[in-house]
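Batch job 17 of 40 flagged for manual review because the log was empty.
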Amino acid sequence: MRSTRDLIKELEQEAREHSSAKLVALVVGFEHTSSFVLATDVNKLEMLNEFIKQGGEPFGFIRITPEGNGTGKAHVRTAAEYNKDEAIHR
């Protein structure tokens, strides 16, 4: 697994590449729920480190792009470490 700093860099890169997106986030999975580190969060690295301390596992990215008339489209991408993990893709 990459360092949390590298994951935050990737999150920031995703936000730069998709600047029209209304939301860009790193998804952190827990046993029964998920949490998000938003690209706009001030303390992204600290949040991610805390989620991991609580047992979370960062596994992907999500962004919402506007489609017009108040609608949006969700784009989801797994982190490279999980590209071949079938459980993530179900």
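Reviewer: the log was empty due to a logging misconfiguration, but the result itself is present. Helices lie at 4-17, 44-53. Unflagging and moving on to job 18.
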